[in-house]
Amino acid sequence: MPARPPPAPNIRGHRQQDQPLPPAAPSPDRPDTVAIRQLVSTHVRALLARHGLTEQRVQLPRLMDILGVSYSQAYRKLNAGSPWLEEDLYRLATHFGETLGTLFADAPPREHGGIAVVDDDPIVADSIVDTLQALGIDARAYYDAASLLQGARSYDAYIVDWFMGTGTAENLLLEVRRRDGPAPVIVVLTGKISSGAAEDQLARMVRDHGILVELKPARVSLLLAKIQRERDTR
Asked: pLDDT tens digits, residue range 48-102?
């Protein structure tokens, strides 16, 4: 008699083991992802500076041409507001005759010197910088607090508009003092202060952190003289 085949396995109720799911893609708002964007942007700015593009107002048009993006897209990339694609970085490096290896080489030491001008009105910031440069001063314009704080440079002096966006520059000034110490001269430019609270806030910055205040519109040559005098007394 032929052997009977073995009984079929009982698969009723058999549960297939769960396979591990691939890790979720990182959210663009996660802190580690933001830190990566900031690091990449720092290296990109260093590359542009190596090739003579030290001002954001000249960096942005060049990025627009190289990457084929709009002004707002170039601004967001340069200031870590949106991610860099590998294709973008390769195109940028090869445009300047570099490689991805040299692009991501160790960042140079933090530079010092010159004057930073921070105003969310680019026309005002650029006008002050142009006048300072005409007087032989190394100056650079920033249009928001983030682009200044993310940069790999400290300055001898800062000229900052008190009202930035919907608030004041208090947090920016506190961070500059924390990062750079008491040595840099900080001048706040302000027009009419509309509330007692804003005036008290500014008075506290003057009293506790050695901030100078100048009313708008400021004469840049006189402003520079006050900065130089203040530096000489420190």
From this structure: 888 888 778 888 999 999 999 999 899 888 887 888 898 999 999 999 998 888 8
Rounded Cα distance between 81 and 38, Å, is 8
Contacts of 55 (CB under 8 A, 6+ apart): 129, 140, 141
Other CB atoms within 10 Å distance of the CB of residue 27: 10
69 and 175 part of one domain: no
Residues 166, 63 share a domain? no
Place of tokens 């260093």: 46
- Distance from C-alpha of 234 to C-alpha of 232, rounded to nearest angstrom: 6
Residue 214: CB atoms within 10 A of its CB come to 16
Query: Into how many domains does the chain fold?
Result: 2
Interval 109-160: pLDDT, tens: 555 679 999 999 999 999 999 999 988 889 999 999 888 887 767 899 999 9
182 and 210 Cβ atoms separated by less than 8 Å:
yes
**Containing structural domain, residue 67:** 31-103
The CATH number of the domain where 190 resides is what? 3.40.50.2300
Q: List, as one string, the DSSP characters of 111-150.
A: B--SEEEE-SSHHHHHHHHHHHHHTT--EEEESSHHHHHH
Q: Using alpha carbons only, what angle is made at residue 38 by residues 66 and 140, rounded to the nearest 5 degrees? A: 70
What confidence tens digit (pLDDT) does each residue in 164-173 have? Answer: 888 889 899 9
Same domain, 95 and 128: no
